[in-house]
Amino acid sequence: MSDDNGTIWQKALEIAKSQVPESEFIMWFRLSYIGYENGTILLQANNTFLRDQFVRKYSQFMREIISSLLGMPVELSVEAQSKTIDHHIAPQVSPRKAKNNIGAEKVIEAQPGISRSARPSNLQSRYTFESFVVGENNNFAFNAAIAIADKPGSSYNPLLIYGGVGLGKTHLMHAIGNRIVDRHADFRIICVTAEEFTNEFIKTIHDRTTNDFKNKYRNVDVLLIDDIHFFQSKHGVQEELFHTFNALYDANKQLVFTCDRPAAELKDFSERLKSRFMMGLKTDLTTPSFETRAAIVRKKLELYKRHFGEDVINLIAKSIETNVRDLDSCINQIIAYAELIKVEPTFEIAQNVIKQLTNSFMPSAIEVSSIIKTVADYYKLSISDLKGKKRSKNIALARQIAMYIIRETTDYSTTEIGSEFNGRDHTTVMHSCQKIEDLIKFDASFSSLVNHLIKECKEKSSL
Ligand code: ADP
Ligand code: MG
After folding, report:
1. Which atom of ligand 1 is nearest to 137's Cα?
2. 45 - beta bridge partners?
3. How far separated are the first and last CA of the chain, in Å rounded?
4. For the chain, which domains are there?
5. Is 169 in the pocket of ligand 1 (CB under 6 A)?
6. Atom of ligand 1 at shortest distance to CA of 171?
7. CA distance 406 to 367
8. pLDDT tens digits, residue range 237-259?
9. What is the CA angle 269-273-278, rounded to 5?
10. Is any atom of ligand 1 closer than 6 Å to the C-beta of 433?
């Protein structure tokens, strides 16, 4: 049928996963991607029940996600298969995770993230120094990371890597871990996010096994903790980390942390722990220059074994200035789009994708509260009526318009919009938006009313 590999379906699944309850996702999204034909994505469910449930509950939702990813309308067609093909039905699990789930599970589960000689389960093997592009924005951090990986515990301790989102903090931290695994096979390494550290700590309190926790974390050669800003306002775990820090530091064990801000700016944070983070080497990552962005695009294409023309590479590097994560997702979307319509990624395709993306990267200029107020005022309703349960025709329409405007002009997900409106379900929000879309299509005066309201919301927000 077709040789495309369903990248766009995978991307849509990732988005869906962040928007629907986990249990729903596991239950209803077990579909396999078959291919793409004449504007329709073909999917297969392994029985009619699964197909019907998916179609009823989520096919419109997924259609919207895919259409907005591609910037063009698509249809979904789901067929049911009578004989089950097992490997087709698992929800999207990365090969790495899938591997970890087999056999190794018991060992890893007992001590998540810890290892001697084998790679710790949560070290991402793709984040290496070799796959990291060095530019003026990360040169210092990169070199410090290399020095640490070569001589853990003796060059700079602790190392704190900080900077905004998508700039390579996690990548560098994992690269340190990966190199240590490769060069110092006998080192015990733990690599966790602050959130995992916290959850594990809480669980051990609950299970009365805090001694195991202490033994585990205070007996490693290298401790890597990602996103320590997560510890803000969590005093119990801050206290525990303080003691872990001291035990490791006194024994010359290597500590590496990442944070989204300089340690001094951590809020609701124990001063003594903050001062520990600040006493070693602090390095920040900043946004890459045009040249570095172009080099990153080339590197990513090399990793993905893809070829883009120089004009496309320059266009991406010129247009996506925010961070490396956005650069990467731009490349992936261009690849997915080109694959779907089976052409080489041209300048025009890149332009199209970038236009979509840059809109979504723009911080939402319009305040949700101001949209709700504007629509309520126009219809002479109170805000609580607009958000509330009343179903009279006038109120329901005003509510649907408000939901639609929020979806069109902010980066709120349908789930987030639902919670603004008395905790409504995201499917309700989707249906509301669909209804307004249909009305706009068929009723010119309604369309100009909505445009007028959007304009008013924008004007109010810019005051
Ligand atoms: P952060 O933790 O700072 O939010 P990540 O480390 O998760 O950012 O990086 C986001 C994405 O960008 C990852 O896919 C990472 O591999 C990539 N990336 C970031 N910086 C670089 C770089 N200098 N060279 C190559 N890839 C990078
Ligand atoms: Mg990160």
Report:
1. 23
2. 31, 80
3. 54
4. 7-107 (3.30.300.180), 116-285 (3.40.50.300), 304-361 (1.10.8), 368-461 (1.10.1750.10)
5. yes
6. 6
7. 9
8. 999 999 999 999 999 999 999 99
9. 105
10. no
Place of tokens 């369903």: 6
pLDDT digits (tens, 9 = 90+) for 373-402: 999 999 999 999 999 999 999 999 999 999
Residue 328 Cβ contacting ligand 1 at under 6 Å: yes
How many CB atoms are closer than 10 A to CB 287?
A: 16
User: What is d(CA 11, CA 17) in angstroms, rounded to the nearest whole number?
Assistant: 10
Does residue 348 register a pLDDT over 70?
yes
Task: Report every protein residue that has its C-beta within 5 angstroms of ion ligand 2.
Answer: 169-170
CA-nearest residue, atom 19 of ligand 1: 168
Distance CA 392, CA 415 (A): 23
Alpha-carbon distances, residue 328 vs 128, 301, 304, 320, 357 (angstroms): 16, 10, 11, 10, 12
CA-324 nearest atom, ligand 1: 12
What would the two tokens of residue 92 be? 């999207």
- Ligand that lies nearest to the alpha carbon of residue 325, given by its number in the listed order: 1
Ligand (nearest to CA of 139): 1
Nearest-CA neighbor of 187 among 123, 124, 140, 130? Answer: 123
Q: What is the pLDDT of residue 362?
A: 54
* DSSP per-residue codes, 218-235: TS-SEEEEE-GGGGTT-H
Pairing mode, strands 188-193 and 222-226: parallel
- Sheet of strand 281-285, all strands in order from the earlier edge strand to the far edge: 114-116, 188-193, 222-226, 254-259, 159-163, 281-285
Ligand 2 centroid to 22 CA: how many Å? 22
What's the CA-to-centroid distance between 188 and ligand 1, angstroms? 25
Ligand 1 near 138 CB (within 6 A): yes
Give the ligand at the shortest distance from the Cα of 285. 1
